[in-house]
Amino acid sequence: MRDLLILKRWFASVRMTRVPVKSIPVWIKLPGLSLHLRTPRMLSAIASVVGKPLFAEKTGIDGQRIDKKVARAIHSEVLSECEKWKNALVGYLFGDDPELSAVHNFIAANFKKYGEVKLFSLEDRPGVFVFVFETYEHGQQILDEGPYFLDAKPFVFKRWEPRVLMEKEAVRSIPVWIKLPGLSVHLRTPLLLGVIASVIGKPLYVEKSGIQGQRLTVPRVCVELNADSEFPDYVKFESVIDLCLPSGGVKVEYEGLPPHCKDCKKFGHLDDLTCPIYPLVHLK
Ligand SMILES: [Zn+2]
Fold first, then answer.
1. 14-30: b (≥16 Cβ within 10 Å) or e
2. How far is the CA of 220 from the centre of ligand 1 (A)?
3. Could you tell me the distance, in angstroms and rounded to a whole number, from the CA of residue 228 to the centre of ligand 1?
4. pLDDT tens digit sequence for 20-70
5. pTM
6. DSSP secondary structure string, 60-105?
7. Where in the numbering of this chain does the DUF4283 domain appear (predicted)?
C-alpha cells in the first residue's frame, strides 16, 4: 500500500473535503543504480534534482542539497563504495530464478574453500545475485575455475565493476552438460566421449565415474556450446572398420539448456520478440 494519506488539523472552519495541495511527498525508486552509488548521501544528491529529499529507505540522509538540475557525484563517497564492492562477482541463471536459500546452499556446496561469501539479491533485478568475497583473488579463481551449475543450469558469473550491467546479460557461449543415453559400454571412455561431444561443442569435462557400485550411469560430458550451434538430437559416429557403432547415431540429451537466439547468436532469450537486437525481424 503506497497511497499517500494526507492529514490536516481540524479547526472550526476547516473544509472537510479533499482540497488540492501544492506539494506532496512521493517515494521515488532508482532501479538499476550501480551498487557503488547507493549511499544515503549519493541517493540524496540524485533525488535533489527531482525535489527535496526527505528520507532514503531504511537509512537516514544528511539532507545535503544540490540546487542544480544535475546530480553531482561525491567523489570520496563513490570511491569508498567502489572499494567495498571490488571483490564482488555478479551471478545469475537463465530461466526461472532460484530461491535465495538455494543460492545459499550453492555457496555452501561450491565455495567453502573461499571463506566467507556475502550474498545479496537485488530488488530491482530479480534473479541477479551479488557475491562478495574476502579477496579479489577468490573471485578471480571462481571465474577461472568454473563452470558452476545450480539444478543443472549454468551459473553465469561476471566481475562487478562500476560499468557492469547488473542484469541477465545474454552470452555467446555457455557450458552445458550433455547426456548420451543408450551408448554402448565399449564406447564410454573419456576419450571417445570427448570425440562424440566435440561434434556439438568444445568438451570441457567428462563426468569422473560412469560406474557407481554395480550401476553404470548415463555418460555425461560438460560442453561449451555456442548459441549458433545446431544442438542435434543425434550425433553421427563413424569408423572405417566395423566397431559396432550405433547405426542411427548417438542420442544426445541437453541438461538445463538455456533459451537461445539464432538472430543475435546469444543465450539468454528466444529468437522472438524478446530479442533486444532484432525484435522487428519477428513482426514480418
Ligand atoms: Zn536475440
1. eeeeeeeeeeeeeeeee
2. 29
3. 11
4. 888 888 888 888 888 888 888 888 889 988 898 888 775 434 444 444 577
5. 0.77
6. --------SSSPPP-HHHHHHHHHHHTTEEEEE-SSSPPPHHHHHH
7. 82-164
Cell of residue 151, nine digits:
539444478
Query: What strands, in cross-sheet order, belong to the sheet with 88-92?
Result: 118-121, 128-132, 88-92, 153-159, 148-150
- Distance from the CA of 170 to the center of ligand 1, in angstroms? 8
Does CATH place domain 86-159 in 3.30.70.330?
yes
Beta-bridged to residue 220, according to DSSP, are 179
DSSP state of 171: B
Taking the centre of ligand 1 as the mean of its atom positions, its distance from the CA of residue 100, in whole angstroms, is: 28
At 162-210, the pLDDT tens digits run 999 989 999 999 999 999 998 988 888 899 999 999 999 999 999 876 6
Distance 259 CA to ligand 1 centre (A): 10
Q: Can you read off the three cell numbers belonging to residue 161?
A: 565493476
- Nearest Cα to Cα of residue 78 among 123, 36, 127: 36
